[in-house]
Amino acid sequence: MDSPDSFTVDELQRDLMTLMTDGIVGRMSAFSGEWAEAMREDMMTAFWSAIQRQGGTVGRGPRRWYVEIHPEEFAGFVELVTHPWVMAMCENTLGKDYQIVEIGFDIPFQGAKFQPWHRDFPSPPETYVDRRITSLAFNLTGVDVTDDMGPFEIALGTQYADGREWMHEMFPAKEIWPSFQNKAVRKFPKRGDISCRSALTVHRGTAHASPVARPVMVLGVDAPGAGHAELHDMMVTQDFSDRLPVSVKKHLVCRVVDKLVPVTQKHDIEGLVMGADPA
What is the fold of 9-256? Predict the structure, then answer.
């Protein structure tokens, strides 16, 4: 990255308030276009490797997959997790002892369908009772998103919904989908942009008609005790670990190994395997 993104205290407070209110906030041009293009290449390389092995990918609907990777398989990992805005959003939302628990990417291809409205995991009482966000997902697009690329759609302000009566506590009944559609906005980020959201804000991928794939990097971060690290199995080699800045190492939840073992995907969201008709 050519130079670190800078922001004022007032801008940070505005972004934190937007996150708390809407469940998502974005920062434009946080990274250079060149950096984002290198990220896209890393995602595509990892996808074509993962799709060829048993358990290397997990379906998130027709023509749509999720691939978890190890930090050193993404050349920009350290730049991402040490970006001043990323660190500030994590620390101010999740606390100084926040935990980096996931790095991976979603990738829809031409023919991907609407996903059902969903959240990424059940809501804890800390969120639906106390209105405290205990996990964050940062997303970075590998392409400039256009309307035919199945843009991400998110129902603003739904991160605090209880959801205990939903299927698997993650999938609201189709009868109430219009209530989410009424709050929905579609996102059209460009390469270099980054968004930060609560994984509990109800969202979905939309139908993808473009011949251009739309890979999206996902960085998952928890407050201590949120418990999502067990859904993942990040590893780093000793050499990579030795080269990590202390500011990264103290937050990274992973195993140190002699040799990386390809990830067998664990975070299988059953309700996303089939596509859905749009509400």
Answer: Jelly Rolls (2.60.120)
